[in-house]
Design a protein that fits this description.
Blueprint: E1 2-8, H1 13-24, E2 29-35, E3 40-45, H2 52-61, E4 65-66
The structure holds dioxo(di-mu-sulfide)dimolybdenum (9UX).
The site of dioxo(di-mu-sulfide)dimolybdenum (9UX) has 4 residues, from helix 1.
Main location: cytoplasm
InterPro entries: CopZ (IPR049740), Cu-bd (IPR000428), Heavy-metal-associated_CS (IPR017969), HMA_Cu_ion-bd (IPR006122), HMA_dom (IPR006121), HMA_dom_sf (IPR036163)
GO biological process, one term: copper ion transport
Length: 68
Amino acid sequence: MEITLNVKGMTCGHCEKAVKGAVQELNGVHGVEVTLDSNRVTVAYDDAIVSKQQIADAIEEQGYDVVS
Ligand code: 9UX
């Protein structure tokens, strides 16, 4: 399973690191790719273990807005 989320508020490399770290540590997540200039976070995960909602929540906990 792979999703691409549109995340608002990531502007520097520290943002990228914060988001990547928070998502990567979730069980069931296999890979995270952050593209700052297009506000995209692509996540490869096992949807039997973790949900899209849980991934979005982890990003929002870091202080960023998940738009879609
Ligand atoms: Mo960089 Mo991101 O100074 O919230 S950490 S903009």
